[in-house]
Amino acid sequence: MTSSLPPGFRWGVATSAFQIEGATTADGRGPSIWDTFSGVPGAVAGGDTGEPAADHYHRWRADLDLLAELGVDAYRFSISWPRVQPTGRGRVERRGLDFYRRLVEGLRERGIEPFPTLYHWDLPQGLEDRGGWRSRDTASRFADYAALVHAELGDLVEHWTTLNEPYPSAVAGYGEGRHAPGAKEGHGALAAAHHLLLGHGLAVRAMREQAPSQHEFGIVLNQSPVVPASDSAEDAAAASRQDALLRSQFTDPLFGGRYAPGLETMFSAVSDFSFRRDGDLETIGLPLDYLGVNYYYRLHVADAPYREPDPARRSVADIGVDTSRLPDVPRTGMGWPVEPDGLTEALVGLRNRYPKLPPLYVTENGCVYPDRSDFADYERITFLSEHIEAARAADVDLRGYFCWSLLDNFEWAHGYKHRFGLVHVDYATQARTPRASYRWYRDFIAGERERGA
After folding, report:
1. Domain spans in the chain, listed from the N-terminal domain onward
2. Annotation: binding site for substrate
3. Does domain 10-450 have CATH number 3.20.20.80?
4. CA distances to 113, 155, 156, 159 from 214, in Å
5. pLDDT confidence of 354, banded at 50, 70, 90?
6. In 136-245, alpha helices (H)
């Protein structure tokens, strides 16, 4: 392979708090919307909850040793808002902050750069009870929380990510009902998307006001290129609607200085967009130091009938699109199409669409396949190798690659059924067993270092 990656390119892995920490009532942690949602019968496969997850809250030292043995330069993790502020406002739980201080100190001791994400979907239930992300006040509370954590950990952390994937938070959580908090709304989901972005901008502003010059701030978005299932005008229009909902709704305000064209027409029957206020675009579009891109697969879509005939009663997820069309390509154990060149397309497409785009990181990329008894996961090795090469092929300012995930974990509405980890976790005993892909990635990183990235 001929490297096109810059000096200092970071190789890492990623996790999130609710998916691995467990200990959901330990040391004063408050309930999150995912604690509440996973307690609803039928909401999560198998009736699974955030307990025990990978019990990372108690086993973090051993997990950091796995990171050190893996040889990564950076570790992307998230901070649990209800572990720091049990109700999302007011009182701070010192034991929660101390846990994350120990974690980042442990990373620094092992020569690993911490890349914390401040919000990875686990909104404190106390804020949801007040309206959640539908409410503008939640954006302000998020900025307060971000400034608080930054002030506490800023001496050890230089790279700060505000949000992970606001699209699933807003659309899957408030529009489709398949993620927490389980709502199926139109106006509420659109308001949630806007307030997530507003909270991001307010948080960046608040942290920058107290940050030294070397601190960098960014956001992470999921980027699935949308492909029409045929050459028909109807499928092309469906792809345009899906892209507006999934990508432009977020990337245009962040990097294009505008709201995504078409959204108001698509949802005029369910929302008056009164949540938008003068000055919001300027706050949302504050310059960033990096953008994280999460890529798993392309979306192949076709035109379809609306599920709800009455436009005024539609959820934001009902846009006349069929996303079940799959190309004739290999699929992962979750049924997702394996199309590595979609990652190249996602990265290059962002660069071409937004001239003021900041440097990029691939912040999540990974897969699920059935386990063998010897944990020889050759399919995952092939998947990662091909996607790393696809990232390398993109002519963009790419600064790092993070594999999802270090550990098997709670996979949201899928519960514990699917395993993304480079390391297998036996949930009954909490034993960690590195898979063949862990050893492959370790050797790959070592080889990249020898070649100078």
Report:
1. 10-450
2. 19, 120, 164, 296, 404, 411-412
3. yes
4. 14, 11, 12, 9
5. very high
6. 136-153, 166-167, 187-210, 233-243
